[in-house]
Design goal:
With 70 residues, the protein is mainly α. It has helices spanning 2-26, 28-43, 52-69. Helix 1 packs antiparallel against helix 2 (28-43). It starts with a helix and ends with a helix.
């Protein structure tokens, strides 16, 4: 059961795992901020009114990615 859950988690969250690994290796503050974001997303109720945080986080990360590419 644990192996099945691990494979599922890796399949859906591989990008987040990559961010956590890269951030943790490079900077402790980055890993702390990402951990807080994940905690808030997990603790917030999954109602449509609470989805703003997920959309805001995703939008912010996309903007930062484009900025880093430029």
């Amino acid at each position: 059961m644990g192996l099945t859950h691990g494979v599922f988690c890796l399949g859906c969250c591989w990008a987040l795992m990559l961010l956590l690994f890269a951030g943790g290796v490079m900077h402790l503050t980055t890993i702390g901020l990402l951990t807080i974001v994940v905690l808030v997303e997990k603790v917030m109720p999954s109602e449509s009114s609470a989805q703003w945080f997920t959309w805001a986080t995703g939008s912010l990360l996309l903007v930062l990615a484009v900025w880093m590419l430029i």
